[in-house]
Amino acid sequence: MYAYIKGMVTEIGGSYIVVDHQGLGYMISVAMPERYQVNETYTVYLYQYVREDEQSLYGFFTREEKELFLRLINVKGVGCKMALGMFTGSIEGIIDAIERENILYLKKFPKVGEKLARQIILDLKGKLVATSKTSLGPDQSELVDALKALGYKPANIQKILPQIDQNAKIEVQIREALKRL
After folding, report:
1. Is residue 71 classed as helix, strand or coil in its secondary structure?
2. Would you call 45 helix, strand, or coil by DSSP?
3. Does residue 57 contact residue 26 with C-beta atoms inside 8 Å?
4. Is the pLDDT of residue 51 over 50?
5. Where are the alpha helices (DSSP H) in the chain?
6. What's the whole-model pTM score?
7. Closest Cα to residue 7, out of 52, 45, 55?
8. Residue 57 in contact with residue 65, Cβ under 8 Å?
9. More confident residue, 91 or 36
10. Are 31 and 44 in contact (CB under 8 A)?
11. Sequence-separated (6 or more) residues with CB below 8 Å from residue 29
12. How far apart are CA 47 and CA 163, in angstroms?
């Protein structure tokens, strides 16, 4: 399986880009091809989909997008094309909708009805905080783990993280977080 490809974008289509890597052009399905520019070099994070009648590459601008995509396609009823279609919004918006059980937000995506939106929430609520905490330092990751162990919900933890001093000792961070929770 491919993890990523680094190369120059040579073509942009309605739902794909072509990346030239050492003289070989890879056609990659992406959610928002307008993010890319022809003759610019990018690192595109990949997911390879293989079935007996199809082989496709799905590309993502960031690792976080790829992680969310992998979680989404594991939900019963969500395929690769449907999950990719959800990336027209921000990943933070998708994660927030799942954590807050915002069915209306999820239903705005193509082919996502109420039943599927509920299934996505049921399967993923509370599991996406790790995907969204990519900019956390090691001390804040430790803080999140400690607060989860104390029984606090990941959504509540995420709300107070920006208010906590990242440079303080972990004990001080936990005390401050407990005051805010």
Report:
1. helix
2. strand
3. yes
4. yes
5. 63-73, 80-85, 91-99, 103-107, 114-124, 129-132, 138-149, 154-160, 170-180
6. 0.69
7. 45
8. no
9. 36
10. no
11. 15, 16, 56, 57, 58, 59, 80, 81, 84
12. 35
For residue 61, give the amino acid letter.
Answer: F
Q: Is 85:110 a contact under the CB 8 Å cutoff?
A: yes
Rounded Cα gap, residues 102 and 86, in angstroms: 14
Structure tokens at 2: 């491919």
Residue 73 amino acid letter = I
Instruction: Name the token pair of 171.
Output: 């004990």
Token reading at 54: 């199809």
Q: Which of 68, 107, 63, 102 is CA-nearest to residue 84?
A: 68
Of 89, 126, 127, which Cα lies nearest the Cα of 106? Answer: 89
The tokens for 1 are 């399986």
What six digits make up the tokens of 143? 């803080």
Q: What is the mean pLDDT of residues 62-86?
A: 93
The model's pLDDT over 110-159, given as tens digits with 9 standing for 90+, comes to: 899 999 999 999 999 988 865 544 444 444 667 877 888 888 877 778 77
Show the tokens assigned to 159: 């709300």
* Mean per-residue pLDDT of the chain: 87
Round to whole Å and give the CA distance between 130 and 133: 5
